[in-house]
Design a protein that fits this description.
- With 1137 residues, the protein is of the alpha+beta class.
- It has 4 domains: 131 residues, Calcium-transporting ATPase, cytoplasmic transduction domain A, CATH 2.70.150.10; 292 residues, Calcium-transporting ATPase, transmembrane domain, CATH 1.20.1110.10; 173 residues, Rossmann fold; 207 residues, 3-Layer(aba) Sandwich (Calcium-transporting ATPase, cytoplasmic domain N).
- It has 37 helices and 35 strands.
- The N terminus is likely disordered.
- It catalyses: ATP + H2O + phospholipidSide 1 = ADP + phosphate + phospholipidSide 2.
- Its EC number is 7.6.2.1.
- It comes from Monopterus albus (Swamp eel).
- Keywords: ATP-binding, Golgi apparatus, Lipid transport, Magnesium, Membrane, Metal-binding, Nucleotide-binding, Translocase, Transmembrane, Transmembrane helix, Transport.
């Protein structure tokens, strides 16, 4: 792919070390690396890696380049490093962040806490009453434009630098700063009111004297808090009791993790069994909780009751926690507070979005300041650097400050607000919301699009498609056969006496355990497979509540109302719900579930009850979940398990079809799950239970010890079936991706799903074209393997890359620059098994290594970090909640809307902002050129040509409306932009506002300014006193004509703006004639109204204006004719070919 790229290990002074050590997001720490990475040959043979990694120390040492220093380093960015280091040191000294520790929390006794914990107050305010003004001013003047205006305005207090009136400099700056401070103040007041509302919410607190009402901000660690249904949980708590008979409740976590599925939480058994709520104070108990952490999906702790003999110990896990900012969905809960305020999971995971600045703003600032500085240096050079030349240089910088008028910032901000309004009013993309109004033109500069898969490219609607039993496969068109088999099998079971069934099942289990393996019939295999799918899950059926006679809401008990009409399923994964709904469709329905049991309804209406003995939830590490149940009627104990094929392949008994069929289903785009079971004797289970409970009480390496005990059961399990569930693509995903690819946008898919499914979706969505090769990056775990695999990858040409998150982490650890450079040359990249942190890392890597603009799009809470890290973040309102949508810069309702958003609005916003910026720049440079010519005639004296009022009017009422009307211009119709997405490629090169176009506009401004000033001086020698009126009139006419020359698509508002501005100027000539004299009013040079109504004045002004504009018209039409000839020539060549 890129044979010229040297594959060398990362040096010690590379940016990667700084990146990873500062972000703290990598699972590897800097200390894990050798102090000096060794130099490796470019194409080392495999024998070189047979030795252990420690053998690398015998290879030659890498050369360590010295840190650059000196004035060049300081000017090119060293000052930023030094300032940042100083600020970090000061912040570290001032904050002295407290070390987080594990804690022991006594129930209902906050006074027994060993340390002082943070107050449970929500604070989203940026400032307080003392830091508001300094903070807002810092945020404003850290941008170059505002800082520049401040320096220029302050210079006018120095007598030797003063030019003109103070109000011409301070009034516009004060207006912009005042508007900004008012806006910030309003936002700050709103944040304060929202925080006050949240902190003032009342909760019931249990005390020795009964219930009392406390504010959310007054809750302390150790308090016993009662939270009602549909009430927000105020702090991180351990779940002690619930009003639900099952001892469990549901909570909604969409505001925490973005997932809309309800989560089942379990109360601590010891406290749930207490007779009354008041008994919580009659026992002596405490909770041992680990130190506050970021991970919202894990928790380790213990519950201990001391006043019993022996003491009662219960292990606590994530199922016993109630995190802050979640909402109770069922029943009333009581919990003990363990973390408050800044130590809660929700606050620890809060990431504050950076202030995003558009690339166009940065380019414009650099170009304008450079032009102003060069022009000032030229003027001082023409003076010969005589006298205090540095003072004259600064005076010229101030004099030419209209090259960067403050109206530039105002016009661009107003233009961006107009673009946002147009986007939200576009009927082609209904429901689109612009949340960040400062970067709409970034939509037209994107090179990389990083997208999530589930819910973004797919609908996150799971449909059961395939059941494979090894010898027979059932699809959607043969599901009725499965239903017939289920009906027949349960009809036979129902016809047998219960005693015979019990004895028969016991005998069959003994025969299966000891006797030879008997081949089962298809009907019995289907029966066992469907039964296993109906039992092995974490789905809970929920029945809608109904209002009783007395007006109180009564819960529909499961044993009273099993009707299908009001039953819904809740689970943490849509895959689980799809499987349970499928078993319902074939006749085996889940009708009730609590912590200890679940009930299934057969096709004949019989209820089968099962006791839940143990449940092992799904984790991303284990990639499987399991459940141990005891059937009530027979007493049989069965261990069911389902999971990914990579995890289950080594667990199930030997077979010759699983791997092949998993590959076949993955190629069809199906998400596969392997289902297996194992029958257990009473002795086997009792032995397992004692070891499992002991492991759960461990406080050190609990997860490893529990996993080791569970793995002792996961041996030689009987393979039952393989299921295939389809996640359907979003509407018009294929044409949208093709459109983006033709526009030159490189698309990377970052997903947490497995490699096979991600690859399949990439193919089915046409992210990877059918005739394109795919290079699957082999799993690597060390530097040697990564080196060999990268060497293999670099030999490939024009192929898509598929890599897992673990392999990506290793490559970035040792070969960051080389890997990113190779990956960026791929037409498409798929990263599977990516964590949210890794998604954000990839975005930052592309920004650092390519300097191109990136866009991230997702729909879930796990995409927020990626969206906020990208230059442009787009969120989709999906089934996973609105967290991504709220955190994004732009919110859309469907993925297909991104095509119209980028091709049409991205193009228009960028083109219009570029034209607007160039015209504001031209407006400033042309008058600065006239000032330079005027000063050169008067011996380079820094005397202003026009008075302050004319300068303010020139930048506002005389030219603002025509120039701002450019926000309505269109160079290409929306239909053409969508039909020819290749037009988008030109935008990414930044040609609409580059140094070339900037130089062209500088030449135009110099030419026109020179013509206007010299023409006024030459043609009006005898009327030199009227030179201001003459040149200013020609200047206004030239600006209006230049706007008309630039417009491609006329709008009636543009015509109105042209004539309105011209009318305002003519009126000012009549009523404000005292301002058209040279220098100050005290000079006595007033405008003679009789003079400007004569024909000589009119034709001479018209001649000057015509000479300044006509050549540009001629060049423009000659260029258009040349482009048309080139286009006709290319078309004729295609026809002949």
């Amino acid at each position: 792919m890129a044979d010229s790229i040297p594959l060398n290990p990362v040096r010690k002074n590379s940016k990667r070390i700084l990146y990873y050590s500062s972000s703290r997001l990598s699972r590897y720490s800097v200390e894990d690396e050798p102090s000096n990475l060794d130099e490796m040959p470019l194409m080392m043979s495999e024998e070189g890696f047979e030795n252990d990694e420690s053998d690398y120390q015998t290879l030659p040492r890498a050369r360590i380049s010295r840190r650059q220093g000196g004035l060049g380093w300081f000017l090119l960015g060293g000052w930023k490093v030094l300032c940042g280091s100083c600020c970090d040191c000061l912040a570290h000294i001032c904050r002295r962040k407290k070390e987080l520790k594990a804690r022991t929390v006594w129930l209902g006794h906050p006074e027994k806490c060993e340390e002082k914990y943070p107050k449970n107050a929500i604070k989203n305010q940026k400032y307080n009453i003392f830091t508001f003004v300094p903070g807002v001013l810092y945020q404003q003047f850290k941008f170059f434009l505002n800082l520049y205006f401040l320096v220029v305005a302050c210079s006018q207090f120095v007598p030797s630098l003063k030019i003109g009136y103070l109000y011409t400099y301070w009034a516009p700056l004060g207006f912009v700063v005042a508007v900004t401070m008012m806006r910030e103040a309003v936002d700050e007041v709103r944040r304060y009111q929202r925080d006050k509302e949240m902190n003032s919410q009342l909760y019931s607190k249990l005390t020795m004297r009964g219930k009392i009402q406390v504010k959310s901000s007054d809750i302390q660690v150790g308090d016993l808090i009662i939270v009602e249904k549909n009430q927000r949980i105020p702090a991180d708590m351990i779940f002690l009791r619930t009003s639900e008979k099952t001892g469990a409740c549901f909570i909604r976590t969409d505001q925490l993790d973005g997932e809309t599925d309800w989560k089942l939480k379990v109360a601590v058994g010891c406290t749930q069994r207490l007779p009354a709520v008041g008994d919580l104070f009659s026992i002596s108990a405490y909770v041992y909780a680990q130190k506050p952490q970021l991970d919202i999906h894990s928790f380790e702790g213990n519950f201990t009751r001391e006043d019993t003999d022996p003491q009662i110990h219960e292990s606590l896990s994530i199922d016993n926690t109630l995190w802050a900012s979640t909402v109770v969905a069922s029943g009333t809960v009581i919990g003990v507070v363990i973390y408050t305020g800044k130590e809660t999971r929700s606050v620890l995971n809060t990431s504050y979005a950076k202030n995003k600045v558009g690339l166009l703003d940065l380019e414009l600032n650099k170009a304008l300041f450079l032009a102003q500085l060069v022009l000032s240096v030229v003027m001082v050079a023409l003076q010969g650097f005589v006298g205090p030349w540095y003072r004259n240089l600064f005076r010229f910088v101030v004099l030419f400050s209209y090259i960067i008028p403050i109206s530039l910032r105002v016009n661009l901000d107003m233009g961006k607000a107009a673009y946002g309004w147009m986007i939200m009013k576009d009927e082609s993309i209904p429901g689109t919301v612009v949340r960040t109004s400062t970067i709409p033109e970034e939509l037209g500069r994107l090179v990389y699009l990083l997208t999530d898969k589930t819910g973004t490219l797919t609908q996150n609607e799971m449909i059961f498609k395939r059941l494979h039993l090894g010898t027979v496969s059932y699809g959607t068109d043969t599901m009725d056969e499965i239903q017939n088999h289920i009906i027949q099998s349960y009809a036979q079971v129902a016809s047998q006496p219960s005693s015979c069934t019990t004895s028969g099942s016991t005998v069959s289990r003994k025969t299966q355990a000891s006797g030879p393996k008997v081949r089962k019939s298809v009907s019995s295999r289907i029966h066992e497979a469907v039964k296993a799918i109906a039992l092995c899950h974490n789905v809970t059926p929920v029945y809608e509540s109904h209002v009783g006679v007395n007006g109180e809401t009564e819960s529909a008990e499961a044993d009273q109302d099993f009707s299908d009409d009001n039953r819904t399923y809740q689970a943490s994964s849509p895959d689980e719900v799809a499987l349970v709904r499928w078993t319902e469709s074939v006749g085996l329905t889940l009708v009730n579930r609590d912590l200890t049991s679940l009930q299934l309804k057969t096709p004949s209406g019989q209820i089968l009850s099962f006791y839940i003995l143990q449940i092992f939830p799904f984790t991303s590490e284990s990639k499987r979940m399991g459940i141990i149940v005891r059937e009530e009627s027979t007493g049989d104990i069965t261990f069911y398990m389902k999971g990914a094929d990579v995890a289950m392949a080594s667990i199930v008994q030997y077979n010759d079809w699983l791997e092949e069929e998993c590959g076949n289903m993955a190629r069809e785009g199906l998400r596969t799950l392997v289902v297996a079971k194992k029958s257990l004797s009473e002795e086997q289970y009792q032995d397992f239970e004692s070891r499992y409970n002991q492991a759960k009480l461990s406080t050190d390496d609990r997860a490893l010890k529990v996993a080791a005990v569970v793995e002792s059961l996961e041996r030689e399990m009987e393979l039952l079936c393989l299921t295939g569930v389809e996640d359907q693509l979003q509407a018009d995903v294929r044409p949208t991706l093709e459109l983006l690819r033709n526009a030159g946008i490189k698309i990377w898919m970052l997903t947490g799903d497995k490699l096979e499914t991600a690859t399949c979706i990439a193919k089915s969505s046409h992210l990877v074209s059918r005739n394109q090769d795919i290079h699957v990056f082999k799993p690597v775990s060390n530097r040697g393997e990564a080196h060999l695999e990268l060497n293999a990858f670099r030999r490939k040409h024009d192929c898509a890359l598929v890599i897992s998150g673990d392999s990506l982490e290793v490559c970035l650890r040792y070969y960051e620059h080389e890997f990113v450079e190779l990956a960026c040359q791929c037409p498409a990249v798929v990263c599977c098994r990516c964590s949210p942190t890794q998604k954000a890392q990839i975005v930052r890597l592309l920004q650092q290594h390519t300097a191109n603009r990136t866009c991230a799009i997702g729909d879930g809470g796990n995409d927020v970090s990626m969206i906020q890290a990208a230059d442009c973040g787009i969120g989709i309102e999906g089934k996973e909640g609105k967290q991504a949508s709220l955190a994004a810069d732009f919110s859309i309702t469907q993925f297909r809307h991104i095509g119209h958003l980028l091709m049409v609005h991205g193009r228009n916003s960028y083109k219009r902002s570029a034209a607007l910026g160039q015209f504001v720049m031209h407006r400033g440079m042309i008058i600065s050129t006239m000032q330079a010519v005027f000063s050169s005639i008067f011996y380079f004296a820094s005397v202003p040509l026009y008075q302050g009022f004319l300068m303010v009017g020139y930048a506002t009422i005389y030219t603002m409306f025509p120039v701002f009307s450019l926000v309505l211009d269109q160079d290409v119709k929306p239909e053409m932009a969508l039909l020819y997405p290749e037009l988008y490629k030109d935008l990414t090169k930044g040609r609409s506002l580059s140094f070339k176009t900037f130089l062209i506009w500088v030449l135009i401004s110099v030419y026109q300014g020179g013509i206007l000033m010299y023409g006024a001086l030459v043609l009006f020698e005898s009327e030199f006193v009227h030179v201001v009126a003459i040149s200013f009139t020609a200047l206004i006419l030239t600006e209006l004509l230049m706007v008309a020359l630039t417009i491609r698509t006329w709008h009636w508002l543009m015509v109105l703006a042209e004539f309105f501005s011209l009318g305002c100027y003519l009126a000012s000539l009549a009523f404000l004639n005292e301002y058209f004299g040279i220098g100050r009013v005290s000079f006595g040079a007033f405008l003679d109204l009789s003079f400007i109504t004569t024909w000589p004045f009119l034709w001479k002004v018209s001649s000057i204006t015509l000479v300044s504009c006509l050549p540009l018209y001629i060049i423009k039409y000659l260029k258009r004719g040349e482009e048309m000839l080139h286009q006709l020539f290319r078309q004729s060549v295609r026809v002949w070919a």
